[in-house]
Amino acid sequence: EVQLVESGGGLVQPGRSLRLSCTVSGFTFGYYAMNWVRQAPGKGLEWVGFVRSKGYGGTTEYAASVKGRFTISRDDSKSTAYLQMNSLQTEDTGIYYCTRADTVSGAKYYFDYWGQGTLVTVSS
Amino acid sequence: DIQMTQSPSTLSASVGDRVTITCRASQSISSWLAWYQQKPGKAPNLLIYKASTLDSGVPSRFSGSGSGTEFTLTISSLQPDDFATYYCQQYNSYPLTFGGGTKVEIK
User: Exposed, middle or buried: residue A64 (CB in 10 Å: 0-12, 13-18, 19+)?
Assistant: First the structure.
């Protein structure tokens, strides 16, 4: 059974940092890109970014709203993806979901498995 | 950026109804479109990818169609478990973008 479990959320002051983790089981982590999506309270879904598998270079893509502040990485030996969030702003508040990203030839990615999400609240 | 526009934003329907949700892209995305279902307090769940391919385990009453800029999600006979919010998402180009969602409510 595929499982993705996020951790690391919580209350943080504006300007501070937080690191989320996503630990998976039930599939070969190294074969897949890993992705983050967030959802502000009562709002829709917003793509944050993802990291490709090492087979496709392990490179990253980000939404403009987080580029330069957030960094996505992966540790295949631990079957874990990370979202390092720096210079947090109140508008970063929301539930952060980790997803597996399936692909066609490493160019087109959609999200076939999701974690339960972890809540990040940025407030003074 | 490619804008994804869903309509309607809210839909009231009864069990057994045929329901159609529309998603329009601001430029062509070929067939690189996915649909997700989200129930309150839960993570989204993939229903359809590549515009019309049903994900494993998704009931056959769900179907997707379209290409280019116009797409539809159809539920052939609405069931009690289908009352939820539905999102489309394009994965043709970066940034990946979602539609604003369509909430399907009980009439």
Answer: exposed
